[in-house]
Amino acid sequence: MPCIDDALDKEMPSIIDDAIELIRIPSRNPPGEERRCAEYIHSRLNELGFTSMLIHEPYADRPQVLAYPSDSRFDELRVVLNGHIDTVPEGSIERWSVDPFSGIIKDGKIYGRGSADMKAALAIMMHICRIVDRRDLLLSFAIGEERAEPGTSTILKHVRRLGIDRLRYGIVMEPTSLRIATCQMGAIWLKVRVKGRATHASIPYAGINAIVRACKAIGAFEAYARDISKGSISNSSNSSNSSNNKSSNSISNSISMISSSKRRCIPRCSVTMIAGGVKENIVPDECSFTIDRRVAP
Question: What is the distance between the alpha carbons of residues 58 and 201, in angstroms, rounded to a whole number?
């Protein structure tokens, strides 16, 4: 569609500018500092011809953004585009080759915390109606995705309260290497506390070392992780019988661009945090660690 290509080419510099500006505004979670980023998105959307609103729920100091084309009616809205404002923290600054909040462009790529996940997509959402001529889009910019907080679910409740009740489709704008993903892994976070008995480190036999116990438990979880990773499910579909083959040729062709048959949702189990001990010369009486369990659909 040349008209879309032309519109995209025209809009791309502004998309890049907004993506860089979003990267320059830290929105790390934890601690949950999305406010400045949300206010920027809200302001820009109003400039770009949207009706935009800040939603101060579920947390008053971490607003979310909901927007739709200013010339649209509620009963015209059919498709939700969803993205999250928050990013994971940048980690050790010494491990970065660039300032994580610079949004610098190198070799045709934008670098910075959130550039892929997912501030570039937020910038595209902000400009989407200048690329495609649609009045049925509802834009949702949520908080709290990185910590499984009720951002998007709260926005959807607000949408119902507004009387927007004809939505039919939702597209989550997460990075997927430009493949349409039709399912995703579930997540469970578990905190494990291992008890021991404290004693002076000069007489360790008089106590029970909780860290040593925890290491044994972690070893068992590692073995469990290897075991469950041997099973997986396909993230694509096949026709159930030959009678459906002819009628599903076009669907099969579409599936080929959605997902390779080799792509898998593989169950995972990882130890991601550990803490224990209070002093160098005391055998610890408690050690805790955190499990991240990814569940295949």
Answer: 48
